[in-house]
Predict the 3D structure of the following.
Amino acid sequence: MRRVVITGAGCITAIGNSVEAFSANLFAGVTGIREIENAPPGSLLFSKVARVVDFSPADWLMQSQVQLAERSSQFAIASARQAISSSALTNHYAGEDTAVIFGCSAGGRTAEEPETARLYTQGTRVHPLTVPRAMASAGTSLVCMEHAITGPAYTVSTACASSAHAIGQAFHMVRSGMVKAALAGGHEAPLTYGFMKSWDSLRAVSPTYCRPFAANRDGTTLGEGATIFSLEAMDAALDRGAPILAEIVGFGMSSDATHITQPNPSGSAAAMDRALRDASIKPHEVGYVNAHGTGTEINDRLEAQAIHSVFGEAATTLPISSTKGLHGHAMGASGAIELLAAVLALQKGLLPCAGGISNPDETLGLRCLLRENKVSTTSYALSNSFAFGGLNAVIALKRYLSS
């Protein structure tokens, strides 16, 4: 088994359209939660989403790509370009030796929903590119086409854990030697009126803003964005002098098999346990958990129970934060965006606070919920992703120290 490292990253998010901008806003606590612009006033019980701004497709895509790629796929193309540029991945690995594994749960909503609305209200012909633009796998295909990558390529759709599952699968592929390198992450642009109305009906969205693990939390904040990583074997990365951001040391998965929307703490705990075992590390060695932390009453409470189950007494002093209070809940892209936050935390020796929390919920028993950034030299971190349907994925990271 080969050691696997992250040698590049790219992102388009509500708090920055580059890793540098994302990092600056993450540690400054700058929120990307903004007023909704594409819904009739008063039509929703909430008024804010975490949307990407200052993103012009023409700055990133060729004209042919602009015509074919829906917003979600545009995010994937732009993020993948950044990851490849920062790692020089495609300069060193043949297309057949490289995998592209992305997560996307909602697909091309901004392509499909307007066409469906016109069909039912006006009886007009649907745009001929609606199917390829709406496919959840379109981002994967378009990135492969642009960079002539012919190795294993597919899209994972496991709701909010999609990109975490995708990164974990790519990690396994590189570690086992199935491929020499991989692009892995997730992309999502679901903020259409129909999507927002659907979540409105679930009563899971905050009427104000997402406050994970806060005593007064009242729901999540819908978001969009993408993050893509370059993965390769550590020995190969060192041989070519590639920059190493962090090492992926473990990956754990589980299924709750109990409820379609309500998480089961035993399933969440199983995924964390399996990630730790895969990494061959003990719970007390973990110095930071980037929690799934959606800001809903039940999710945060049950995730806290799972953390207590895995870490025991150490859970009371374990630094924990959910960064969704800044970049929102980007659905299938959440795991990748939050893994980037964990990578930066280890790289910089600074753990990011949970945005918007002034009063942590003391009943959760997590006494080290981060209300401000915390200096840390910890070697290990976990990134949790627990999705609707009880589909769980946890990635274990190790801080990289050059010799």
In short: The chain has a mean pLDDT of 96. The chain has two domains: 4-240, 250-398. The chain has 15 helices and 14 strands.
